[in-house]
Amino acid sequence: MRREKPKTAVFLLLGELLRSDRLPPVTLAVVALNVVVYLDLFEEIASWPLSAVCISAYGIVQQRQWLRLILSPFFHGDDWHLYYNMVSFSIKGRSLEQRHGSVYFAVLLAVFTVACSGMYVAVEYASYWFLGNRESLDSCAIGYSGVIFALKVLTTHDLP
User: Fold this and answer.
1) Is 149 a residue whose pLDDT tops 70?
2) Cα separation of 51 and 142, whole Å?
3) Which has the least CB within 10 A, 8, 9, 52, 148?
4) Once rounded to an integer, what is the mean pLDDT over residues 127-153?
5) Range with top average pLDDT, 69-73, 107-111, 123-127
6) β partners of residue 141
């Protein structure tokens, strides 16, 4: 089943971004990419169900669908999921990109995107092996929350 089409939260997100200080280029590009993916503006991926792009240990390891490690963070379940993730990301992104520079921040996001997805798969497998929880291999996750959490850790570390 495809997610709901945009409602109030997408417009609130756009209003929030227009009202705030100018976003640095990488932060703006990531927010724009997330919005474009959510609005199904890429014709090639508009028909993909969320179950085809979510982080899933079975899909990634058993079926060797490695692209899920990169795609899943850019898909969101509904407009409020997108709104909260992108508002939080824009705050952290503005701070970190200005402090560390755009190139470093872009590399950091790429590393965090793959690392957070990989960590999710590792936790799913650990749950399966140590707890015998077969359902954990079939669980599915989407959204930028893992990357945002990693950025929060970095932001907290950088504070005096």
Assistant:
1) yes
2) 9
3) 8
4) 87
5) 107-111
6) 55
d(CA 35, CA 18) in angstroms, rounded, equals 14
Average pLDDT on 64-85 reads: 92
31 CB neighbour count, 10 Å cutoff:
22
In this prediction, residue 1 has a pLDDT band, given cuts at 50, 70 and 90, of: very low
With beta carbons less than 8 A apart as the criterion, state whether 55 and 141 touch. Answer: yes
Name the nearest CA neighbour of 146 among 60, 74, 90: 74
**141: alpha, beta or left, given left = phi > 0 and alpha = psi -120 to 50?**
beta
Q: Which two tokens stand for residue 145?
A: 């929350």
**Displacement of CA 33 from its chain's centroid (Å):** 10
Distance CA 84, CA 55 (A): 20
Could you give the 3-state DSSP secondary structure of residue 155?
Answer: helix
- Residue in the structure block whose two tokens are 């669908």: 65
3-state secondary structure of 141: strand
Supply the pLDDT for residue 43.
77
pLDDT given for residue 27 in this prediction: 95
Whether residue 8 is predicted with pLDDT greater than 80 in this model: the reply is yes
**Whole-angstrom distance, CA of residue 151 vs CA of residue 36:** 22
6 in helix, strand or coil?
coil
